[in-house]
Amino acid sequence: MFHNRPGKDSRQENDFFGEIYETYRNEMFYVAYGILQNKHDAEDVVHETFMALFANIDRMEQNSPKKNRNYILTIVKNKAYNLYKTKRRQAEKELGEDALEDVFDEEPEVKLMEMEKTEFLKQILKKMNPSYRDILLLQYYHGLGVAEVAEELGKSPDNVRHMSMRAKKRLKEMLEAYGFADAYLARDDRGGL
After folding, report:
1. CA distances (Å), origin 73, targets 31, 65, 70, 112
2. How many CB atoms lie within 10 A of CB 51?
3. What 8-state DSSP symbol labels residue 138?
4. Closest-CA residue to 28 (of 11, 51, 8, 12)
5. Are the C-beta atoms of residues 146 and 160 closer than 8 Å to each other?
6. Are 79 and 49 in contact (CB under 8 A)?
7. Which end of the chain is less packed: N or C, by CB atoms within 10 Å?
8. What is the pTM of this model?
9. What is the pLDDT of residue 157?
10. Helix (H/G/I), strand (E/B), else coil: 34
11. Which of 118, 48, 43, 38 is nearest to 78 (CA)?
12. According to the model, what pLDDT value does residue 156 have?
């Protein structure tokens, strides 16, 4: 899979990297997808992150699992945010008459309102406590159940249920502060954020 560096026990290094891959790949994908909202871009970010991690495998072998997890998720988030910014800048440059026509093809008011709501909700989620945001994204955007979220985050199902309730309460408070809570709570009743 990767070329080993001279002087290293390649089997031990590959085994360690394999463990890292198996342990964190799904969580990395969910974090990247939560930022990018695009499966292919999220997969690209995960791949790039693993390439970067392999370059620093020596350092990671000395770290605790918790420190490695924080290190890995920081890299994923940074790469995802960088890609998001790059794609946003490209889209702004490419925005021309054709793109504007696409936006206004059908029911322009409805499309614009949905786009604004989605963007607003993303901004609100970015301001939330990261653990609350992760739970909400895994539950509502990725459709995972409590047990699956618990497994992904390494928490007990009871802990996830309590955190989910607190996260929804916090989201409601934040939305109410902007006068949008009723519309989003109606969406929540239908199974989405």
Report:
1. 8, 12, 5, 33
2. 10
3. I
4. 51
5. yes
6. yes
7. N
8. 0.47
9. 92
10. helix
11. 48
12. 92
Residue 106 gets the label, from left (phi > 0), alpha (psi -120 to 50) or beta, of beta
Greatest Cα pair distance, the chain, in angstroms, is 64
Cα 98 → chain centroid: 30
Q: Taking the CB of residue 144, how many other CB atoms lie within 10 A of it? A: 19
- Helix, strand or coil, per DSSP, at residue 135: helix
Look at residue 63 and give its three-state secondary structure: coil
Q: Which residues contact 135 (CB under 8 A, 6 or more apart)?
A: 149, 153, 160, 163, 164, 167
CA distance linking residue 87 with residue 54, whole number of Å: 26
- Given a contact cutoff of 8 angstroms between Cβ atoms, the answer to whether 29 and 42 are in contact is yes
Rounded CA-CA distance 72/53 in Å is 8
C-alpha to C-alpha distance for 184 and 117, rounded to whole angstroms = 9
What are the two backbone dihedrals, phi and then psi, of residue 107, each rounded to the nearest 5 degrees?
35, 70
Q: How many residues does the chain have?
A: 193
* pLDDT mean by block of 10 residues, the chain; 193 residues: 47 81 89 87 93 83 85 90 83 58 52 66 81 83 82 88 91 78 49 50
Q: At what angle do helices 10-36 and 146-153 cross, to 10 degrees?
A: 130
Query: Please, where are the H alpha helices in 37-64?
Result: 39-55, 57-62
Positive or negative torsion for Cα 165, 170, 171, 173: positive
* pLDDT value of residue 1: 38
